[in-house]
Amino acid sequence: MSRSCRRNPSKRDDHQRGASVVEFAIILPLLLTMLLGVIDFGLFYSENIGIQAAAREGARQGITQGDVIASVNSARGNLDATKLQTKFVVDTTGGAPGKLVVCVRYPQRSVSGFFSWMLNSYSETKYVMKMEGTATVTSGSKNWTGGTCAA
Prior knowledge:
Number of strands: 4
Order of helices and strands: HHEEEE
Shape: rod-shaped
Helix content: 40-55%
């Protein structure tokens, strides 16, 4: 009788399993960084779209003598009203009736905390529209802290 020389298949599987664990341990940090980045920057992008829409709506209402602050608050979407900062001013340096400048600011945040070193300031937007008539209210603000709002 002859004996065949065969390897033990269970040992080969153990080596493959160990290699898979090492490969997974190497790639896991990259995958988690990408996942957390998509979540945090997706939220940042969504909030940025929200403040742009709020500023545009505030300016649109303001040029027709509407309430700018109330328009910004109603168009804020899913943004927290207590953190939303709004300021508007009518710039008449180019002559009457002037331009309405609406500035909106909202704090950036990192949901995961992983990108908090990058998302630790404010998202700001400014919207400028020409007034349709003489402004009854030339400036106003709500929760605005520091910074200027000018055309």
